[in-house]
Task: inverse folding
């Protein structure tokens, strides 16, 4: 005789069973056939930068019009990056680079990570900006 016992199968509560039955009935009746966006890919939030244990809370806040500070800082970085690409003179470019550095530091602190992790990202942005500047200069 084995000392290990088989576990009974997990039970489904009456409420869960009723919900599943109603969903199945609605599917068979075609209730879901004409929903907007049918067959289109889902628009999933990019929350890879948000710690897993905070994602649900942040999603609720976002749906209420709030954005986590980390996400806001990253969004601001993208805006400054776009402005840097379009900057025409060195004065504007230097001011934007200073702002970019400050935002990058803020984003690193908010994410609780060492800013050195973002050095690679900053290097890539700087290379791209230098590339854009040389391509705009008259020859």
Result:
């Amino acid at each position: 005789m084995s000392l290990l016992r088989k576990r009974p199968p997990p039970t489904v509560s009456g409420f869960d069973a009723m919900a599943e039955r109603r969903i199945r009935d609605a599917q068979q009746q075609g209730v879901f056939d004409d929903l907007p966006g049918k067959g289109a890919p889902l628009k999933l939030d990019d929350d890879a930068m948000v710690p897993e244990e905070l994602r649900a809370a942040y999603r609720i806040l976002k749906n209420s019009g709030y954005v986590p500070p980390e996400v806001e800082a990253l969004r601001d970085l993208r805006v400054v990056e776009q402005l840097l690409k379009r900057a025409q003179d060195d004065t504007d470019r230097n001011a934007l680079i200073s702002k970019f550095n400050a935002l990058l530091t803020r984003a690193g602190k908010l994410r609780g990570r060492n800013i050195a992790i973002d050095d690679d990202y900053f290097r890539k942005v700087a290379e791209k900006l230098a590339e854009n500047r040389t391509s705009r200069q008259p020859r």
Observations:
- The mean pLDDT is 77.
- Residues 52-136 form one domain.
